[in-house]
Design brief:
3 helices; alpha+beta; 204 residues; Jelly Rolls
Amino acid sequence: MALLPLSLPQADLLFDPAFLPAAEAAALLAQLTAEVAWEQRTIRLFGQESPQPRLTAWYGDADARYTYSGLAWEPRPWTPALLALRQRLEAATASRFNSVLLNLYRDGRDGMGWHADDEPELGPAPAIASLSLGATRRFRLRPRAGLVHPPLSLDLGSGSLLLMRGPTQRHWQHALPKTTRPLGPRLNLTFRWVAGSPAGPAYS
């Protein structure tokens, strides 16, 4: 299949539910789960510190430093597997990426709250390619203040690719809700461009 547009106002979303074949996605999940240097960082919410409900890692070019939710990240060097994925996604999305944030949701009790990827170093119209491996999880989108539209739910299966670009982060938030359903692990890789390198993201 190919990346096809999703109809959402003030957003530019493209989706391919089968970007990677099932066998390749399963092999990548096993490889990356084993070789990535995972961390569980602590965040402060409402004056209290708590561990993030997922494992995370940040890889990229040497100058692709990133800060979100008060956490500063220094990139680890690309592994061969991550570099190959970067090149493949750049070709598929006509975008440039110099970094990737990896989130490992160990089961349904791990999740991600509502947020937008709108940090200054991502620029005003970032292109973010989100590759999912492992268990299917429900991805939610809701409009930010000033935009009236029903929320959107999208099931992200293993091997699926979602590209968010243009005004999406300015007008929409997204989340990965926790669930009580018994689920296996899900690994999500979000490739992006962080300001600091000589070129920036471009897409047609």
